[in-house]
Design a protein that fits this description.
The chain has a single domain, classed as Glucose Oxidase, domain 1 (3-Layer(bba) Sandwich), CATH 3.50.30.40. Helix content is about 30%, strand content about 20%. The chain is built from 7 helices and 12 strands. Strands 1, 2, 3, 4, 6, 8, 11 and 12 form an 8-stranded mixed sheet that branches. β2, α3 and β3 form a beta-alpha-beta unit. It starts with 14 loop residues before the first helix and ends in a 6-residue tail after the last helix.
Amino acid sequence: MSAREIHTEIARPARSEIAALSRLPVASIVDALGKRGTLSYCLKLQTPGLILCGSAVTALGPDVTVRRAAIDLAQPGDIVVVAAGGGKERSCFGGVTAAHMHSRGITGVLVDGMVRDVAELRRVAFPTVARGITPLNYDYPASREQGAVNVPVDIDGVHITPGDVVVADDDGTVIVPRDQVTAVIATTQAAQAAEAEKWWGRRGQSLGAVQQLTDSGYTII
């Protein structure tokens, strides 16, 4: 990643692909990605019941002006990813910013750090993923000298390139690389159809698990 750079243009998947991913469970997407791309359980929706899905516009660091630059460059349907370093002492996102982003058609936010004003975030139904909640925010500027917009960032060991798709639901958060979006959609949809057909055929029947364990050497008492 490069500090003090503002990249104004990024490549995004088609809106139809974003819409398709938004209808798929995160757990199924994770399976299709071979268990890769999953963020820590600590990064979770602070707005339960909502779905976060959109192309990533990245803001490196917690500074408010850097974050605002990312918001200015974001397009409707995008997600702003704030790579704030995972700190838990201070929040760097809140309700006023969420309301402004919502007015611009920005889909949601992923904050590698803390947020506040969660009642407002939930009232405006703005999908927000973060490590937690604290009312104490930063004194700005904060690490502005190391900030950047639309550069690759790493969160929880997961590499996020601008234009990758962030998907989050109540199970957790996954990053779908932009060049894998089409394949992940097809794989996930096919797996869901196969799973539904398999379990439909098993309705009301024994799963045969006791016999399988017996065959593998378990003692049945």
